[in-house]
């Protein structure tokens, strides 16, 4: 029996995995991962049980390429992020682009990277392999936010884009995010392109050694003018500074150890906003993220240093980007909180930015040029009569109420900006996980920098009339109804538990939740003909004045439950109390069912 093997294992399983690992080492260009995998094999040879389990974890499966590209922990092996896997992905993507290119017209790609460990290395590998395969490759000149790649795909008119980032994942992770140009207009990949790219990657992995792939240093490096065009387009979202009312706001900003500040500072200057107070300990890129346990502004404690700075300077607003600056978090003063501030939910920011977009989109006289100014570029064929608001199916129904009030189209999409960005006639889109698309004419993805500029513009204009963001939220409730949201996340160690819960909800659907009668259950596993939502493993449960969405997480071993309640009866206080009371009942009822 193989060293470290157990009686119930397939004979020679460990030897086979060890042979795969040895072959991996032989083609790995990274000395660090070669050495750590060699050390693991030595431990396997000593029959260390945990080493065998680690070998199986790394080589018993492959990190799947899908609509989110690749994302995983940095280490050697096909089920981790490393130079071998990235080289295979680059070669597979190159083959895909060459296959679909018009005869005589070589495809092209722009490649960007953030400040995580190995991001620059992975990006350079990608550019060299693309150039070696005959794809025109343009590498961004330094570490930059993810929205710059989404912008560059359209601005440069290239066939595709790759951003090397793991966004707000833990420090040991990295990832590979793919956009497509041409008919996809700079949006993230969706089916069937993801499966086609994955098939090419699998073929490369099965037949070619990464150290033998053709490489070339003839790739281009993008000029500074590309970044200047992004800065100019993003700054324009706030309008000319001379036409903005004078209202000085005290702002605190944190980049969460990411790459947002350099670009955001330039946009702030170009748009005429005052420089913010900085959380200096978090302003420079740092792949170790030393001041946060988890570099996600949604996580408890992530904004502690920003709130401390806000109290120190008496800030009117806290603005935070996640490490690759595609998300935006906002906090506002709240004397009822121990910290003196409260973080707005993604739904609250989304409904305020959606209301702002609706006002801009319907401002008289309405012309195509007005709409293009509002979204920062062309509307991709949508006429002036077709502007639309869009959000993911798990985001608050509040945006639909705004669209109805302003006579705009409204689209609900599957989760992820690969879907939100494709809504026809889009002028604004968002999802509750702090993602906002405010300038679809230039960036077809969530963009935390442009969203911050739009939000600062809103806050400044409110301040000029003596109002605050808190006042605006109350105004929203008074006009559209009060909407309240909450989430339940159930983390599992056995993924079959998620299947069991989803199966139980389908086979024995609830007749009530928290005493509220269930009016309807839509099983989106079969899609939704009425909304055009593709099939997805999601249950939508409708109740009086409330809604529950249940789905497995797409990135973590979790079952996620999204709760929404609303009320438009009575005054502001009555509406708020009614919605919160409904939400409390929903949460208690769902926790009982999931326990």
Automatic annotation (TrEMBL):
<dbReference type="GO" id="GO:0006166">
    <property type="term" value="P:purine ribonucleoside salvage"/>
</dbReference>
<protein>
    <submittedName>
        <fullName>Phospho-sugar mutase</fullName>
    </submittedName>
</protein>
<dbReference type="GO" id="GO:0000287">
    <property type="term" value="F:magnesium ion binding"/>
</dbReference>
<dbReference type="InterPro" id="IPR016066">
    <property type="entry name" value="A-D-PHexomutase_CS"/>
</dbReference>
<feature type="domain" description="Alpha-D-phosphohexomutase alpha/beta/alpha">
    <location>
        <begin position="229"/>
        <end position="331"/>
    </location>
</feature>
<dbReference type="Pfam" id="PF00408">
    <property type="entry name" value="PGM_PMM_IV"/>
</dbReference>
<dbReference type="Pfam" id="PF02879">
    <property type="entry name" value="PGM_PMM_II"/>
</dbReference>
<dbReference type="Pfam" id="PF02880">
    <property type="entry name" value="PGM_PMM_III"/>
</dbReference>
<keyword id="KW-0460">Magnesium</keyword>
<feature type="domain" description="Alpha-D-phosphohexomutase alpha/beta/alpha">
    <location>
        <begin position="388"/>
        <end position="475"/>
    </location>
</feature>
<dbReference type="Pfam" id="PF02878">
    <property type="entry name" value="PGM_PMM_I"/>
</dbReference>
<dbReference type="GO" id="GO:0005975">
    <property type="term" value="P:carbohydrate metabolic process"/>
</dbReference>
<keyword id="KW-0479">Metal-binding</keyword>
<dbReference type="InterPro" id="IPR036900">
    <property type="entry name" value="A-D-PHexomutase_C_sf"/>
</dbReference>
<keyword id="KW-0413">Isomerase</keyword>
<feature type="domain" description="Alpha-D-phosphohexomutase alpha/beta/alpha">
    <location>
        <begin position="63"/>
        <end position="204"/>
    </location>
</feature>
<keyword id="KW-0597">Phosphoprotein</keyword>
<comment type="similarity">
    <text>Belongs to the phosphohexose mutase family.</text>
</comment>
<dbReference type="InterPro" id="IPR005844">
    <property type="entry name" value="A-D-PHexomutase_a/b/a-I"/>
</dbReference>
<dbReference type="InterPro" id="IPR005841">
    <property type="entry name" value="Alpha-D-phosphohexomutase_SF"/>
</dbReference>
<feature type="domain" description="Alpha-D-phosphohexomutase C-terminal">
    <location>
        <begin position="490"/>
        <end position="568"/>
    </location>
</feature>
<dbReference type="GO" id="GO:0008973">
    <property type="term" value="F:phosphopentomutase activity"/>
</dbReference>
<dbReference type="InterPro" id="IPR005843">
    <property type="entry name" value="A-D-PHexomutase_C"/>
</dbReference>
<dbReference type="InterPro" id="IPR005845">
    <property type="entry name" value="A-D-PHexomutase_a/b/a-II"/>
</dbReference>
<dbReference type="InterPro" id="IPR016055">
    <property type="entry name" value="A-D-PHexomutase_a/b/a-I/II/III"/>
</dbReference>
<dbReference type="InterPro" id="IPR005846">
    <property type="entry name" value="A-D-PHexomutase_a/b/a-III"/>
</dbReference>
